[in-house]
Amino acid sequence: MLLEGKNAVIYGGGGSVGGAVARAFARAGARVFLAGRTPETLEKVAGDIRAEGGSAETAVVDALDETAVDEHADAVAAAAGGIDVSFNVIADGDIQGTPMADMPLADYLRPVVTAVSSKFLTSRAAARHMIGQGSGVIMMFGGTVTTGSREYHLGGLQAAFDVVESMRRQLAVELAPHGIRVLTLRTAGVPETIPADLDQRQAIEDDLVAQTLTGRAASLEDVGNVAVFAASDWARTMTGSALNMTCGVALD
Fold first, then answer.
1. What is the largest CA-CA distance in the chain?
2. Which of 51, 115, 225, 250 is surrounded by the most beta carbons within 10 Å?
3. How far from chain centre, in Å, is Cα 37?
4. How far apart are CA 51 and CA 35, in angstroms?
5. CATH T-level fold of 7-236
6. What is the pLDDT of residue 219?
């Protein structure tokens, strides 16, 4: 198995994307540590993993709380012997559907501040342990996708992605001498994550698919599978990059 013997921390592990990645990591042999703010959703994912014979532990951690993040990373490293993979996919608190001309400054800035703060804190916590062992993979989720056809107002979310990509490049350069890789998994949207009760849900999904070259958008299963590959030694030549899972929406 690609991640046999690896210890992986997933922040936002109770969410749809985090849960998909956690399940995929566990199937690939990793010992999974789920961190998030909602114990019920964390335990649901952990229960699924354990039912399939995998190893999963949960902890209530606010990824915006510096002390909580550091203490949790220290505890995981002490219990497991190290941290091999850190994946941050917490919600960024973005407000969508409101034109920028009508949006309060606080609503625009919220996802930017949240994304930068949480990614910095969780990456730093993991890096401090990975540096000592001379290896590790830090992954983020999102990434910049430039398209002129999207009609849906994304608020500050795209700006947040842009800033995180800059952070990812800087981290990759600084951490490479220590054997640590830093990657982003980039999609153009995963239809399964669109709230079922959203009025525009079908229109948004149709728009996502229409922009692809493949006639389909990335699924949660796709995200999990690519995350396993990125975290494994099979991707050891890759760092400082965004893995393009946009199904052709972004042509790099």
1. 51
2. 115
3. 16
4. 19
5. Rossmann fold (3.40.50)
6. 93
